[in-house]
Amino acid sequence: MLTFSVLTLFPELLRPFAEEALLGKAQARGLVRVNLHDLRQWSGNRHHKVDDTPYGGGAGMVIRVDVVARALDALRAEAPIDEVVMLTPAGQTFTQASAEAWATQGGHWVILCGRYEGFDARVERLVTREVSIGDFVMMGGEAAAACIMEAVARLVPGVLGDEASHQDDSFSSGLLDYPEYTRPPVWADEGVPDVLQGGNHGAIREWRRSQALARTLDRRPDLLPHAGLMPQDSAELLRLGASAEQLAAWNAPEPPAPKQKRRRKPPV
Ligand SMILES: C[S@@+](CC[C@H](N)C(=O)[O-])C[C@H]1O[C@@H](n2cnc3c(N)ncnc32)[C@H](O)[C@@H]1O
Where does the chain bind S-adenosyl-L-methionine (predicted)? Predict the structure, then answer.
């Protein structure tokens, strides 16, 4: 089973998140486990203080390395730990590929949520990974832990109702997801594309692939070199306005040769 043990100063921020919706259901079904631990338990002082002023001066407080070390020792005494993740804006950016790798690896992951100015630099010696969720700075690691647990847990087999439902997600297929529609069929003068209502599954597949290519070309062309494009995709990208130079830069395969028109046999 995939287990997350989160070390935080605010476990109550994450409790409803871990216990509601699909993550809550996944826990109830024994597919995922989320343990929330208050770092203050290991403060070692009666004021439950886990931070101190930075050496060299400056604003803010820093979380002490000895507190984190005690917490990790205590968790390790209860169950083996496979990975210790420190959340920090200075870490490697977490992506869908990370989510896939973590879900495949499984095991027991400890996530350290910082606050204030973050952790004493010596905490780096205690962790296996330093992870950021993007180039911005939040007040604490709890929201980052929530993002990561959601992204990883939904890839654990059985957590989502329909196993296929994450395969077309943005980034999973290498492209952004195609647009989806549901009822009503017309809203504010905008209808649902006819192809989606026609029941021709081949045509729907083709339309969706084309839409995913168009969205990615328009919004995130940087994804295209890693999207595992097929020759038919190259043809579609050219039709959508990409240039032959762009295709070459993305290492896209050659588009299929245009079909030769069959010559009619002359009448005998
Ligand atoms: C105010 S931040 C500390 C920022 C730190 N002084 C810096 O500039 O790198 C407090 C905590 O929030 C969490 N945090 C903030 N932004 C984050 C991000 N983009 N990714 C992951 N964790 C983040 C980290 O756990 C961090 O220790």
Answer: 114, 133-138
